[in-house]
Amino acid sequence: MPVSGEQTGGMGLAQTRKPGRSPSPGSETGGEIDEALTMFWYHDLLRYGTNEPVIDSDWGIHINADALVEWSAGIATAMERDGVANASDLALDLAFIFGFDHCFFHHCVDAQISLHMLRLHAAGLPLPNLRGEYRNTREQLHSSQKVPHWWFVIEEALANAHVARDPTRLGGLREAFIRYGILPQPLDGVRGAWALWEQPAMDERAFDALSHMVWLQHLTGDLDPLGILPEVETIMDDGGQDAGFNGVIDLIIETCEIQEKGEDGGQPHDWIEDLAEVPRLHAFGGFTAGIFRRLDIPLWFHGGHGPELERRYDVSNGDWPYGTIERLYSHFRSSEVDDGSDDPFGDFDDDDFELSP
């Protein structure tokens, strides 16, 4: 069913039109909690608390342009100490592309959760508020930052892993992201769940397990649906907060493994067999694709530098994103990539790749 205005019926979500770029009056001007992402936030596709599916006119990736320019100026100073030419331009582009692709992963999660909500609605069930309830619970943790519950906001770990595991030239910037503080050092407890990116970036099994947990967090309304909190607390009692933080991902993976009857961990209902009788976690294949391509997602620029950045990152100017990626890669390449995987915004499965050591 095609979309009419802001409301969508049936499964016509993908036919929605892209809204204009000027933020609407009263639109939120927030940001992520991690220091490298405070100038970015993703606004979900569907409105919260409605009986019928309604597209939120402010959906898309929002950017506090003034905060981004200020943050990138600090990166430029560090680049100049390293002798990098054109540091101001490179710093701005490096910070922007990271935040952009991090937020694209949030779209992948939002899109698949929203489609599940629409399936339930189409089946005659009340429209659940899965994404909104998850967001409210997550925001409560953002406000309190309680340990160890704070570490369970693992959608953020997956979003960073998504950038770090990209097989394209963008993935080759991983070391530059780390060097200039954009991507946290692995297992840096100060930066919470955002620092749990390395294991899911390098291990397909870890990425799948964390994706499964994110699905369950939405479906159950529980940020610890696998029940690992008591074990995390036990580890903390024995080895301190660092040990507990370091063990979170391992515990999620272990709990998601198929277990023999009578063993701890793993639930039979977590697994189903596919047509080839291969057991898989019941989550709907992880989060690898959104309803829209990356460059179809609206960008909303807030602040005095907004018009400047809108022009800079407009796909019609011929430089963004391909020329931007190439320019960054020529300066900060950390590993060779396959020449066949140079397009970071092409139509490929983000999980089909080989990571360099």
Structural class: mainly alpha
Number of helices: 10
DSSP E strands, number: 5
Mean pLDDT: 81
* CA-based gyration radius: 20 Å
Residue share in β-strands: 5-15%
Major sheet characteristics: 3 strands, mixed
Task: Give the uncertain stretches in residue-range form.
Answer: 1-12, 334-338, 347-357
* Shape by Cα distribution: globular
Question: Helicity, in percent?
Answer: 40-55%
Placed side by side, the strands forming the largest sheet appear as: 1-2-5
Structure description:
This protein has helices at residues 65-81, 87-122, 130-144, 155-164, 174-179, 198-202, 204-220, 229-256, 306-312, 322-332; strands at 40-43, 60-64, 271-273, 279-281, 299-302. The protein has 357 residues and is mainly alpha-helical. The protein has a 3-stranded mixed beta sheet with strand order 1-2-5. Strands 3-4 form a two-stranded antiparallel sheet. Helix 2 (87-122) crosses helix 4. The protein is globular and about 60 Å long. Mean pLDDT is 81; it is low at 1-12, 334-338 and 347-357.
